[in-house]
What we know:
single chain; mainly alpha; Rossmann fold; Serine Threonine Protein Phosphatase 5, Tetratricopeptide repeat; DNA Cyclobutane Dipyrimidine Photolyase, subunit A, domain 3; 3 domains; 6-stranded mixed sheet; two-stranded antiparallel ribbon; 22 helices; 45% helix; globular
Amino acid sequence: MPRVSHTRTPAGHTPRRGPRLAIVFGDQLDLDSSLIRSLTPDDTVLMMEVAGESRHVPSHAQRTVLFLSAMRHFAQSLRRRAVPLRYVALDDPDNTGAFDTEIARAIDSLRPAEIVCTLPGEWRVKHTVERVGVASGTPVRFMPDEHFLTTPEEFAAWAKGRTSLTMEFFYREQRRRTGYLMQGTGPRAKPEGDVWNFDKDNRLPFGPGGPTPRPRPPVRFEPDDITRSAASAVGTVLSDLPGRTEPFSWPVTRTDALRALDDFITHRLRHFGPFEDAMWTDEPTLYHSTLSAALNLKLLNPRECCDRAARAFHEGAVPLQSAEAFIRQIIGWREFIRGVYWLEGPAYGERNNLNQHGDLPRFYWTGDTDMNCMKHAIGQVLATGFGHHIQRLMVTGNFALIGGVHPRAVSDWYLGMFVDGVDWVTLPNALGMVMHADRRDNAARGATGLVGTKPYAASGKYIDRMSNYCKGCRYDPASRRGDDACPFTVFYWDFLIRARDTLSRNQRMAMILKNIDRMKPQERTQITIDAAALRRRLGIDTSSQPST
């Protein structure tokens, strides 16, 4: 199990006393962080806008503008506090375009006694800082990220000795620890309503008329001069990025983020729980919060989000099932995912336990497809950098899973194309939850994944039940043969056939796989042939995929 070390000192080096180089990355914009609180007048804060961070995976133009604008607003706050700041703008002619070279340039100029920063949200970035520190003979110290409720060490202690890391068990301990939606304290404390979660109740589709009441769209934040300057720099230096920069309306300051939180609690949380898994055309956000980007950039604290939701429940403004669903996403799923990321280490991203090697179809970058559900789900990502969780899991993710796409191609797309993309959250969600590729090499676990206990694979019938995407689509969600066969349905049955040996060791898949066993051999063969032809048509090249 990798240990998340918070100190790196070059061998044989005696730490010097003196000014520090305090690095603040774009997802660490918390003015109350332990790093910012520790600053002295002799320290210098380094912030860097580097082109390489938008190109190591192709980053959505709007995601890049969001990061840069939020960073520039944060830098403005530091200057108002008279904090010494070295800020490298994207369009600075001396910008070297990468974290390692910019940190090295700052060290050459400032000669700090120590490099200090909050623990980054990505192994790659952490290793970059360590590598530059060793090369320059400068000690490196990582300070804990107090934004989260659970440290990597605490999660590792919880996970130790467990053959299965079930999120529900972790979540219940989190409820007891935090006291959110609990009656009483201590070991006798019970959950409000005597129910730990309402997940089974929160899967309602909309009726034929769509969502009622009509969701109020999230509050808009018009770009100010700083945001416009960030967009201009992106247009000049990174004009080849996917997606569009307009319309841009994301919160880029702490004040904006608090207003967005209030807007969600007041206008959408009430209906969030029951309909969190529903989808509808021309309703990209429905009752969802759209707060994940502000949370991941640290403009919002998870505690204040949960406090507001719990208060709204206790005041009778929202039902328990909605408050619980929102709080579970934050103290349960969000903390669990981060724990898995740091527990499993850098090699986690290379797992591919279903042995899938297909290319990501081109339409993931263009939205140019005749599948109505994919056109809507991808189209709104290209337009805004946003998709709610069920679109990610059961539309764009489900299609990649059952189509046989390589899991790393999917996780890289999720990292770059969503405005809330940070590696600690997107990698376990995409690789584990979406692609079911993260099974540990542990015979006791069989085919059960680390993040998801079963693959979230579904045919077109699921999408038809949970949305109106299939209405007017040229494909029939119930059909797996012929010209009108839904690609989701074709790939779903092909996936079960291809992965049958692996999935047969997962007890949760036993009933589903019986449907495969009842098929005649020639029918299974025909599905395999049809799926292969469909892959060729859609550009899912599996030429490097070993036969199974």
